[in-house]
Amino acid sequence: MTEKSFLANRTHEVEWSGIRIMFALADEIPGIVNLGIGQPDFDTPAFIRDAAKQALDDGYTRYPPAKGFEDLRYVIAEKLKAENGIVADPDTEIYVAVGAMQVIFNTCLHMLNPGDEVILMDPGYDYYSQIRLFGGVPVPVTTHESNFFKVDPADIQAAISDKTKLMIINTPSNPTGAILDGEILRSIADMAIANDIWVLSDEPYEHILFDGHGHTSIGSLDGMADRTISAFTLSKSYAMTGWRVGYTTAPKVIIDEMEKLMEHMVSGVTAVAQRAALAAISAQQDCVQEMVATYDKRRHLVHEGLNAIGGITCLKPESTFYAFPNISSTGLSSWEFSKYLAKEHKIAVVPGSIFGKAGEGYVRLSFAASMEQLKEGIVRIDRGVEALKLRAT
Ligand SMILES: Cc1ncc(COP(=O)(O)O)c(C=O)c1O
What we know:
The chain is of the alpha/beta class. The chain has helices at residues 18-27, 46-57, 70-84, 99-111, 128-133, 153-159, 182-194, 252-265, 271-282, 286-307, 334-345, 371-392; strands spanning 33-34, 94-97, 117-122, 137-142, 164-169, 198-202, 228-233, 246-249, 322-323, 347-348, 350-351, 363-366.
């Protein structure tokens, strides 16, 4: 009997998040500048916090409806129509979730049978554990720096087999900051339709766009409404990571399953958090624009700062608050480089290989941090890279 033999087999399919492992290491280093964390450094805007405080006094302290408050679902439906071009029935096609993360988890749970293949991007967000937990088989499709990490639809076509059940699309992308435009999404949609594949479209960074870029939701494209599960969240747009509110729109059959399971799982999203979400989505969106303008200033600093370091190159992110510099010239793996920077130069970044095999040779750096932290972080990376060069001579 092994020590853990009492655990169900499926639990072994779940791996500790590589980001957690990196942070555990960073936490032990006093004075470290942490540019690894993928969450806004802003406080949730005051009017949203006030709405939550008011909700407490108004008695929102009881079980909420399993798929979310009706008024919130109606406001979400309006937002989806106005911003995403998605027409969804708030009574049957919208579900309020514990962040986009729960939508991803539920989608894998409801859709995957053992052996079903799931196409996902590499480098890309880490969906591997959720897929494997339900017996799914991840099929990574490599995206290339030379193509600004935008997937080539021909590479998706080549990865499709008769076992492909689902494709996971994440635009804007964590960690690369790449945006998939309408043309690429149309090609992906055509392949999904032709091969009877569902799409999980994970869109947490829909608002964090630069240089006039727009956001297209694949679920809005012709023929996609009945095969797309679109995941959205309040986490990034409104600096609400800790509130744990997101939502999805999907065909009724999926929403029904999510609602049914919610009753058995956690009963619903915390009532007060839902009231805060209602305030956030129904307000003027100035607060979002202000935060994006701040990220944009930081983006320039990070992009220029990194490219000024000899041997490091970094594309200018089109979106999100992540930079994904190429560190391959250091000769270290992305884990070695990240551990080295943390231990010897007190700067935490995330190894690119956490985001898939093709992330090797890169690290992810978050610019959801103050200008001072970013400046200091870049100084430390520079120092680290220069010290490596000296070692090599
Ligand atoms: C691509 C992507 N999907 C999903 C999530 C989870 O977001 P949420 O906080 O809404 O669960 C994140 C968070 O970092 C993300 O980057």
